[in-house]
Task: inverse folding
């Protein structure tokens, strides 16, 4: 099975290499800003020419595509950036490509041919705020045979923090091909992510006939219909405590904003705490990601059919606290991972309709409650007297849903990453529908 898969490694660059990595990312930002300045100048030039009555065919041309921007950059780089040869040309290409995409998205959004929220005209990237990243698509991109180094254009050979074994094996066997590499600074660390075309060996789940329902939550990562409870990662809570402490510390120090909203020079101590806070945030995110990866890998490797809920919009409407939002980000991620992992394992993913009343339904007799407060941790059925943990009950309902789907549309294989979306169960009251929440499921699969 041919898939596009990313392999991401933390880097341990030498001090000189750190400067070169930062320089490449800065060059990408510079090219973006330079191109945007050019586009803006050309646009206002055009406006002025129009007001003088210059005919349309003689108006100044605005470089809008990557091709046009790159041509303009190559003509001007000697003047605009005499230091351009310090970085790979891919760095400038990254910035110009980002700009061309932003411009295209803006015009498509304005013309109404683009789905999703309205896209604003691109803005200049700030040195202090912009994320540091740069993409390489050509040149020497290689994983070294010692499995502890990677080679990138202009940057040379950089040591990786962990072994590149999994990717190296694919490359050595000829079942994998690197298509591009992205360097990125995140949470106080440099990373490289290789986008690869991998020919994966077909796998089957350990129990192809088995069905599992997973109710994802805040308190626990998930409760399975088998009764198993998967707790949040152990150190998660202490990391949150540290986060709270650092936030307080940051508030006490002299930041870039004065109390009345003006700007000022931030203190070195503020910057230090800010960096520590960034690392603490990254740590929480890493712990959560690890827990989610372990859960989804195990579910996809064990069960033939996995059933999860769609994003819990109704739950969010009932309770607008941050915790629900955090959980929903996790749910979107679990669903994204299950989608590709079930495909990789020749399994099936069933996503319950978001209005499927998984919590309010009795898993014993099928009776649906009109109301169930979030504080009620146990489900008590007034029809048949069943008493069960709330999340377990929801997980059992989800598992039962898979049988309904199999009946209504036969054996549905999750052929190309597409999830099966059943409607509400027969005989149960469908709830009203609301528009879909956007922008949560846009990322490519990461290395498992
Ligand atoms: Zn019941």
Result:
């Amino acid at each position: 099975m041919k898939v596009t898969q990313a392999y991401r490694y933390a880097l341990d660059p030498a001090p000189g290499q750190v400067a070169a990595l930062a320089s490449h990312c800065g060059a990408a930002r510079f090219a973006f800003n330079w191109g945007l300045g050019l586009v803006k100048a050309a646009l206002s030039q055009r406006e002025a020419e129009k007001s003088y009555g210059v005919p349309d065919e003689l108006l100044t041309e605005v470089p809008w595509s990557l091709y046009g921007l790159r041509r303009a950059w190559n003509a001007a780089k000697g003047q605009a950036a005499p230091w351009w040869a310090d970085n790979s040309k891919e760095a400038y290409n990254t910035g110009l490509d980002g700009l061309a995409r932003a411009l295209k998205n803006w015009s498509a959004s304005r013309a109404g041919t683009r789905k999703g929220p309205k896209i604003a005209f691109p803005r200049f990237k700030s040195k202090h705020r912009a994320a540091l990243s740069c993409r390489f698509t050509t040149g020497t991109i290689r994983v070294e045979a010692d499995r502890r180094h990677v080679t990138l254009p202009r940057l040379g050979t950089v040591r990786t923090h962990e072994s590149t074994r999994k990717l190296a094996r694919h490359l050595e066997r000829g079942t994998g091909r690197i298509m591009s590499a992205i360097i990125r600074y995140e949470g106080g660390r440099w990373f490289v992510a290789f986008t690869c075309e991998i020919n994966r060996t077909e796998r089957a789940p350990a129990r192809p006939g088995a069905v599992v329902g997973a109710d994802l939550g805040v308190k626990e990562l998930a409760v399975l219909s088998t009764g198993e409870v998967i707790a949040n990662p152990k150190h998660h809570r202490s990391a949150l405590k540290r986060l709270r402490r650092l936030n307080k510390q940051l508030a006490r120090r002299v930041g870039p904003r004065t109390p009345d909203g003006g700007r000022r020079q931030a203190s070195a101590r503020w910057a230090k705490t800010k960096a520590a806070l960034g690392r603490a945030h990254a740590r929480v995110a890493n712990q959560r990601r690890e827990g989610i990866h372990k859960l989804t890998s195990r579910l996809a490797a064990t069960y033939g059919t996995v059933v999860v809920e769609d994003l819990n919009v109704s739950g969010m409407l009932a309770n607008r606290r941050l915790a629900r939002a955090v959980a929903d980000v996790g749910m979107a991620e679990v669903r994204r991972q299950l989608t590709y992992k079930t495909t990789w394992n020749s399994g099936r993913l069933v996503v319950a309709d978001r209005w499927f009343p998984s919590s309010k339904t009795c898993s014993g007799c099928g009776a649906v409650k009109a109301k169930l407060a979030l504080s009620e941790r146990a489900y008590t059925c007034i029809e048949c007297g069943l008493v069960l943990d709330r999340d377990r009950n929801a997980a059992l309902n989800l598992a039962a849903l898979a049988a309904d789907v199999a009946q209504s549309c036969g054996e549905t294989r999750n052929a190309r990453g597409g999830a099966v979306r059943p409607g509400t169960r027969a005989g149960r009251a469908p709830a009203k529908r609301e528009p879909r929440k956007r922008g949560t499921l846009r990322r490519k699969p990461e290395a498992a």
User: Anything to note?
Assistant: The chain has nine helices and 14 strands. Residues 362, 364-365, 367, 381, 383-384, 386 surround zinc ion (CB under 6 Å).
